[in-house]
Amino acid sequence: MVRRKNAFCYLMVAPMLALVLVLGVYPMLQTLGMSVVQYDLMRIAREGTPFVGLENFRQICAEPRFWIAFRNTLVFVAIVVGCVVALGLLVAQVLNMDFRGRGVLRSLILVPWVTPPVVSSAIWIWMYMADRSPINHVLMSLGLLHAPIRFLTDATKVWGPFSVPMGAVSSVRIWNGLPFVTVMLLAGLQSIPHEVYEAAEIDGASSIAKFRHITLPMLGPVLSVLVTLLTIGGIGHFEMNYIMTLGGPKDLTNVLSVLAYQSAFTFYRFDLGAAISAIILLSTGAVAAFYIRAQLRATAAG
User: Fold this and answer.
1) Residue 2 has what pLDDT?
2) Quick count: other Cβ atoms within 10 Å of Cβ 65?
3) Selecting from 2.30.30.40, 1.10.3720.10, 3.40.50.261, 3.30.70.1150, what CATH number does the domain 75-251 have?
4) How is 205-237 classified by DSSP, letter by letter?
């Protein structure tokens, strides 16, 4: 009976597992294989795809644009993860309160989540256009600006790794990812027993003390999962950076995934694009491995 039950479970999972293997695992393995051969479309008919080992990795590491994209990726992840988690905590706390219209507000918060990234990018490109931006129009009408901000094309205002275009693209990613973080944190908040807060109030704890000593520790497991998923998604993020700026201006918003695409489909160096993709895969794998190791240690300690 148990064997039949297990066989039925495996049978139900098999189609999805096959889909993951075909659409996920196989392309990753093929990319890793392509990263160690010469796969230049301009020379493939004449020279084929000879094995070159780590030469592709050496070549991209010698390219300044790779290190610029690597730095931009770290900056992009830091901005997006930090801001979206902080905003998610704030919004989740508000939505966890009991007030009229809470259900409507909870539904509206999901709008950015269900909007496809391509559509979101197109909308925000219009919002950030220097001559047509409603944001610039409002700020100039209030007298706060004397000239429109070039959100996506200003390469003059750069502060180290930060720039106006990087801030603009990051803000769109934050807007798009906020609903997911809010829903996860809201679920975590609703799982905290109300009696714990009541006991803290009896002891005279302030709102800040309750947030610091009750809410944050009890949301720890949810926050760790969120930070891990957001970091992995941020390292490999492609759509908005490519659609909104193509990695420009002057590579200020160019991240690893966009550079990999440019290497493969603009310069026809699929081997270099695969090598960059392999670095993205190894980076996200390292983040996942760190999280799994931390969880195993916590389980063993508990």
Assistant:
1) 67
2) 14
3) 1.10.3720.10
4) --HHHHIIIIIHHHTHHHHHHHHHHHHHHHHT-
Distance CA 135, CA 119 (A): 19
Where do the structural domains in the chain lie, given as residue ranges?
75-251
| Lowest model confidence (mean pLDDT) among 134-148, 172-186, 245-259 | 134-148
Digit-coded pLDDT (tens) for 94-149? 898 888 888 888 888 888 888 888 898 999 999 999 888 888 888 888 888 888 89
- Distance CA(94)–CA(108), nearest Å, equals 14
- The chain-wide mean pLDDT, for the chain, equals 90
CA atoms within 13 A on the CB side of 156: 3
pTM of the model: 0.90
d(CA 215, CA 212): 6
Task: Label each residue of 73-141 as H, E or C.
Answer: HHHHHHHHHHHHHHHHHHHHHHHCCCCCCHHHHHHHCCHHHHCCHHHHHHHHHHHCCCCCCHHHHHHHH
